[in-house]
């Protein structure tokens, strides 16, 4: 008998005692695997995640977790062929598998890179600057994020067995929260294989990833206020889980991505001859056929100016006629199968519902020529294009045919297309194809409240565009209303969903100690040794150099103007400068002030400071006139060792004041500073 899939629970692979349910190949109906979670100790899994996985992740900084994730991604790439081979059974062509497998591994890499660049080498993330709360500067506030102490339960849909769990795992892992992954049964064999390779790699701390193959049983009953459930699938299941007592009464955080009637809009500026027309049609057909249209982001509604409906149907039909449906690995096949015969029945049912107010203009839901496989045993279906015949029809905005199915709907004007798109009651994504930036703004602003992501496509970005249907790790994925009201990915935003934001109030010294970022008002230490002579291990938050006063002369200003070519009148023309309401006379260039400040704070000899890589938050606060005198105070604000390099980043608080102690300029100086010799950890 075909073997059972295993769950990975509390550090070991679990095999159910029964025969389980057979999972059939989408292509030929053969049994690929069997699935059962009978007897699985889900309560033990939750406990294991909290007791073993959470503490193991907490012992790593964001950078440590990022390094593990990157190593894992590189390891998974070595197994790609094996994943692709099994992916075929889900009905996926190699183009489809790339979206799922390479897309998933790419998401790991993206999160690893973002975390290293945008998060500190710490376990605490600071949200915004400190807020001064008292006049004397002894009382301040700082928002911080810390990892929740629970488990992230991830329930995924059948259409992306690899990307679906990796895109949820990556942000949770970086956040320091262990995951329990539950793939949709239909394609769980591919998820199980990838998880098996992950566990074998030993690259993730034990307990940070567990797997449920089969039903979740009473898993949710064991969750509480530190735990989360992230769900992707049907609106019905989303509604069921949203109403679960653990979510309603135990404070479990719940995130859903459900059905989405995504729209693609052809701008009214476009004619059949303009290149945007071809872009629109090509994108429509691509979105209909990739993954056989089984993408939560696929285009279900094509909104087209009424006068262009016929032309779009003709052009799309011409392209659709070239689609070759069949076994994913057969020569020439461009569209594979749906995930199962049941799914095909669902799609046919949806097409029948859509056909109440639309006419099928391409394809036949009940018949398709199939290459390299048997039409009866595989879940094949033709691409289906419909034309909505009733402008006020409800069906195209309500019925999600989760397959290669789109409906063309004519619109009258900009207000009408915005209103039609909103009838989807909230979608993951919309796209607008137009060459008119003014029209793009009007439609984008009309659509934005109803959408999680909007792509504006034209000839300039078409070559580089990642397309309507691709959620990207750095951009948010999710949508309001019918789309589930959830949000995933979005770079570091996705990490923060798993962390708790807390406002900390206290003295600057306390905030400095908690956040490991020096806060104005905390102690400054000006010792014998210039801070630039200290390596990363020697330097302490609060280490300070104060130098000045340095008079600024008119000759300095004239010299700087001539030398740099910045002869703006406020620095060179006394009469014009006098008329300037802010200056009332010649003032020094802001960049002169910053340059003089650097001259005051640097220690020139070779030493541990390797480079200045920028400044942040530069503000010029008080104009500097000739004969003013500048003093600079430079304080070590944040010290971030870089893993695997023999240096780290140091952020310095720089304040330049004049002879009246007024702040003239404030900014953060960013430098790279060497670690002690031989330390590259
Ligand atoms: P389901 O909602 O049935 O299943 C999604 C996931 O939820 C699966 O892992 C499923 O597990 C699990 N699940 C189902 N019931 C429960 C429960 N009571 N408790 C815990 N977990 C549960 O969706 P399908 O995957 O079957 O897809 C059905 C439809 O959903 C599609 O036809 C499409 O319309 C829509 N869909 C939308 C997506 C989107 O992102 N917008 C993506 C995929 C589908 P199991 O498989 O073991 O039942």
UniProtKB/TrEMBL annotation:
Aldehyde dehydrogenase domain ranges (all copies): 21-443
Keywords associated with the record: Oxidoreductase
Domain MaoC-like, chain residue ranges per copy: 548-653
InterPro entries for this protein: Ald_DH/histidinol_DH, Ald_DH_C, Ald_DH_N, Aldehyde_DH_dom, HotDog_dom_sf, MaoC-like_dom, PaaN-DH
A Pfam family assignment: Aldedh
Highest taxon, organism lineage: Bacteria
Xref: PANTHER family: ALDEHYDE DEHYDROGENASE B-RELATED
Family from the record: Belongs to the aldehyde dehydrogenase family.
Record protein name field: Phenylacetic acid degradation bifunctional protein PaaZ
Gene from which the chain derives: paaZ
């Amino acid at each position: 008998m075909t073997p059972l899939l295993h769950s990975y629970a509390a550090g070991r692979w679990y095999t159910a005692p029964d025969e389980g349910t057979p999972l059939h190949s989408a292509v030929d109906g053969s049994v690929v695997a069997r699935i059962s979670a009978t007897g699985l100790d889900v309560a033990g899994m939750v406990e294991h995640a909290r007791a073993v996985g959470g503490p193991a992740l907490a012992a790593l900084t964001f950078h440590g977790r990022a390094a593990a994730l990157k190593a894992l991604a590189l390891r998974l790439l070595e197994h790609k062929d094996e994943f692709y081979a099994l992916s075929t059974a889900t009905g996926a062509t190699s183009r489809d598998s790339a979206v799922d497998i390479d897309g998933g591994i790419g998401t790991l890499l993206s999160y690893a890179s973002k975390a290293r660049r945008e998060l500190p080498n710490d376990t605490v993330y600071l949200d915004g600057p400190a807020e001064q709360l008292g006049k004397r500067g002894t009382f301040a506030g700082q928002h911080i994020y810390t990892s929740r102490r629970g488990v992230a339960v991830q329930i995924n849909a059948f259409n992306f067995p690899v990307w679906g769990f990796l895109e949820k795992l990556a942000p949770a892992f970086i956040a320091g929260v262990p995951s329990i992954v539950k793939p949709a049964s239909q394609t769980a064999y591919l998820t199980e294989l990838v998880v098996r390779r992950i566990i074998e790699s030993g690259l993730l701390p034990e307990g940070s990833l567990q797997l449920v193959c089969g039903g979740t049983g009473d898993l949710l009953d064991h969750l509480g206020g530190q735990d989360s459930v992230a769900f992707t699938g049907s609106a019905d299941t989303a509604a069921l889980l949203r109403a679960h007592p653990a979510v309603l009464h135990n404070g479990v955080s719940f995130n859903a991505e459900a059905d989405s009637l995504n729209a693609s809009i052809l701008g009214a500026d476009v004619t059949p001859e303009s290149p945007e027309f071809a872009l629109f049609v090509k994108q429509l057909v691509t979105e209909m056929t990739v993954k056989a249209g089984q993408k939560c982001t696929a285009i279900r509604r094509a909104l087209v100016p009424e006068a262009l409906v016929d032309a779009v149907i003709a052009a799309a039909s011409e392209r659709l006629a070239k689609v070759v449906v069949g076994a994913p690995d057969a020569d020439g096949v461009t569209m594979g199968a749906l995930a199962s015969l049941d799914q095909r029945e669902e799609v046919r049912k949806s097409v029948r519902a859509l056909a109440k107010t639309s006419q099928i203009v391409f394809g036949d839901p009940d018949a398709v020529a199939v290459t390299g496989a048997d039409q009866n045993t595989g879940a094949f279906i033709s691409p289906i294009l419909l034309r909505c015949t009733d402008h006020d029809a409800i069906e195209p905005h309500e019925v999600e045919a989760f397959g290669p199915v789109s409906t063309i709907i004519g619109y009258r004007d900009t207000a009408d297309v915005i209103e039609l798109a909103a009838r989807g009651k909230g979608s993951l994504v919309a796209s607008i194809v137009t060459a008119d930036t003014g029209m793009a703004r009007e439609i984008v602003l009309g659509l934005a409240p109803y959408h999680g992501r909007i792509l504006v496509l034209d000839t300039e970005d078409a070559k580089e565009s990642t397309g309507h249907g691709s959620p990207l790790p750095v951009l948010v994925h999710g949508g309001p209303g019918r789309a589930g009201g959830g949000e995933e990915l979005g770079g570091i935003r996705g990490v923060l969903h798993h962390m708790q934001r807390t406002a900390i109030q206290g003295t600057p010294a306390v905030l400095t100690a908690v956040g490991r970022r020096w806060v104005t008002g905390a102690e400054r230490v000006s010792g014998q040794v210039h801070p630039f002579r200290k390596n990363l291990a020697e330097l302490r938050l609060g280490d300070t150099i104060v130098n000045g006063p340095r008079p600024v002369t008119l000759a300095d200003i004239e010299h700087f103007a001539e030398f740099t070519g910045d002869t703006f009148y406020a620095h060179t023309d006394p009469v014009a400068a006098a008329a300037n309401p802010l200056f009332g006379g010649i003032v020094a260039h802001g960049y002169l002030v910053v340059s003089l400040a650097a001259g005051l704070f640097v220690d020139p000899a070779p030493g541990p400071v390797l480079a200045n890589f920028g400044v942040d938050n530069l503000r010029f606060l008080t104009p500097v006139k000739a004969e003013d005198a500048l003093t600079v105070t430079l304080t070590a604000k944040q010290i971030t060792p870089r893993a695997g390099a023999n240096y780290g980043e140091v952020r310095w608080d720089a304040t330049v004041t004049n002879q009246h102690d007024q702040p003239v300029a404030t900014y953060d100086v960013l430098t790279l500073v060497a670690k002690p010799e031989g330390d590259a950890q």
